Amino acid sequence: MATSLLLTTLLLVPAIYGLRVTQGSPCTSVCPSSTNTTGNDIVCLDAQFNSSPVGSSFQSCITCELKSTYANQQTGESDVLWGLYNLRFAFSACVYGFPVQVTNVSTPCLVSCQPLISSLEFGLTSPTSLTYNTYCGVSSFADNLVSTCEYCYALTSEQAYLANFLEAVRYNCHFMTTAGTSFAIDPSRIFNITQLPASTGGAQPSQSATSSGGTTNLALVIALPVVGFVIVLVLVGVCCFFLVRRQRRKAKERRAAQMMHYQWNDGAGSWGEFPLRQGPFAQGFSSPVYGPGLDQTSFAPYSTTEFATIPAPEQVYQPHLEKPDGHEQHFFPPPPSKS
Fold first, then answer.
1. β-strand 321-322 against 328-329: which pairing, if any?
2. How many CB atoms lie within 10 A of CB 150?
3. Which of 25, 81, 163, 326 ranks highest by number of CB atoms within 10 Å?
4. Same domain, yes or no: 67 and 47
5. Which is more confidently placed, 187 or 293?
């Protein structure tokens, strides 16, 4: 009777599940502490994280650790780093069966993820606060290999969560979480079938940051290219306007120069097309003719008829001149000789 009562009691008592957590952390109430994470704490199928006690406990523990800012200054441990360690442990156990076989699910993604095995298993069985990030420096943990593995699991219908587990682990290698701060990626995005974006090009905002300022950031992302395009379009339009204006001005100057050239050199041009004072030579003469009271700077050409009426030089009145002593002296031309 006593034996059967003991067996009944053991069956009714739920199994104790433990995941690594920082000593003294408030998450110890969610994550029953254990010296090491074990295979009994891991599930590998997406549906099990919401439907099974083990999966729900794992998700609740990791959520608490990644959101926690607790860190033990004496040991150098933090909840965030132990949460990421538990994700790496789960991925390795589900994919490679190391350090313990959790499931027998067969998937072709094992071939795509095989190159990562040496890095993800590095220090997995003996983690310390000084070594649980050393996998980041292993040469096999290359971004192209990680992306290939993630892409394969993201396409599966039962294990899409594993792709986000691996991406969260990679994210912390590129953007190390400092002690006293929570993880940048919200856990609700990790336990999700929607694949996380690759973290090789820059830090990705957490879900909380996205929910608070995501609308503004999205508006900026959409508006900046549009504004930039409008600015470029305006600059191109202004440049085209001034270029066309300059070409038109040059063409106008060329036409004016050609017209001037034709008027001076073409036989069709005549002095009548210009002011009389612009040409020194009269038509039909090879030298200028000056009239009374005209000097070399103010002359006008004469036609043949006008030239016949010009008086002889001896009949032209000579103006009075001043003598050196200041007296005026008039000179008159001699009378015309009688023929």
1. antiparallel
2. 24
3. 163
4. yes
5. 187
- The SS3 of residue 180 is coil
Highest mean predicted confidence (pLDDT) among 23-37, 251-265, 316-330: 23-37
- Closest residue by Cα to residue 137 from 151, 154, 162, 120: 120
Residue 303 in domain: no
pLDDT at 257 over 50: yes
The last residue of one of the domains, among 182, 204, 226, is 204
* DSSP code, position 293: T
Which H helix or E strand runs over 3? helix 2-12
Give the bridge partners for 77, in sequence order. Answer: 72
Q: Please provide the distance, in angstroms rounded to a whole number, between the alpha carbons at the two ends of the chain.
A: 183
Same domain, 55 and 158: yes
For residues 119 and 17, state if they share a domain.
Answer: yes
113 and 79, same structural domain? Answer: yes
| 32 and 181 belong to one structural domain | yes
DSSP sequence for 79-145: HHHHHHHHHHHHHHHHHT--SS-------THHHHHGGGHHHHTTTSSS--TTTTTGGGGSTT--HHH
Residue 196 inside a domain? The answer is yes
CA–centroid distance for 128 within its chain: 41
Based on the fold, state whether residues 55 and 90 are members of the same structural domain. Answer: yes
Q: Is residue 30 part of a domain?
A: yes
Structural domain range at position 136: 12-204
Model-wide pTM > 0.70: no
Is residue 310 within 8 A of residue 291, CB to CB? The reply is yes
Q: How many domains does the chain have?
A: 2
> What residue has token string 């294990």?
159
Roughly what angle, to the nearest 10 degrees, separates helices 79-95 and 161-174? 130
The DSSP string of 219-282 is HHHHHHHHHHHHHHHHHHHHHHHHHHHHHHHHHHHHHHHHHHHHHHHSTT--GGGS-GGG-SS-
158 belongs to a structural domain: yes
CA dihedral 6, 12, 13, 17 (to 10 degrees): 130
